[in-house]
Design a protein that fits this description.
The structure is a homodimer. By secondary structure, chain A is α+β, with helices and mostly antiparallel strands. In chain A, about 30% of the residues lie in helices and about 30% in strands.
Amino acid sequence: MPKMTFKANAKSENPMKSVVETGHFKMIIDEPESMGGTDDGAAPVEYLLAALAGCLNIVGHAVAQELGIKLNGLEINVEGDLNPAKFMGQSSEERTGYQEVRVTLKPDTDADQATLDQWLASLEARCPVSDNLIHETPLKLSLS
Amino acid sequence: MPKMTFKANAKSENPMKSVVETGHFKMIIDEPESMGGTDDGAAPVEYLLAALAGCLNIVGHAVAQELGIKLNGLEINVEGDLNPAKFMGQSSEERTGYQEVRVTLKPDTDADQATLDQWLASLEARCPVSDNLIHETPLKLSLS
């Protein structure tokens, strides 16, 4: 299949708040007042977790259909821990991003455990966002 | 510093659309009609790029302040390429996530090139979202 290219264009509104356009959608990204932001939107690290949850919903339904699993509903809870030291400009031995991301999937289904285990195993391998988290992804930063 | 835990809770509305809550914010994640979605929100892989852009805006301003750079404005363009084959259930040698993510930063500033090069070099090291992309991040999936 041909590669697809996705884009996001952000404009800073203030040091913590940006408005990001992806196609015809706009997202407001900010920080809570406790972090010095204006709390007009979720934080970047929350957008990252949301991306993962949204991706697992889509892949979860696609794989379920392939396995003959009927999903009456699906909830996905995602959480991650990070040490904000380096982000805040302090020296730290710990990485600045999430040290681990935990996902709990709650499918509403009558499928048996063996089928659900097979379903779960397929999700990581198929979901683009989980792939970008689990494995190294080259990032190229440049100035315009 | 103590670790911080962030959470996102997603409920599926249909096979492609989910509503994600992070704190008191809601995000709609969907796919365009061309991908079989209802186009009520941006795609998960677009949320991932937005998270990166929003993170670089915040870290960009923090590092600029530390370096004495006055930012009158900042635009951040992010793009990434992926092959949707594996995501769509086809076999593929290529990874399912972004193969590369490119970021172009457009700071409106009078700072000299050497200072801007120093600024750019700090961004990758400090931004949690770029850290989670560049380096491996453990992901734990479980069924509730």
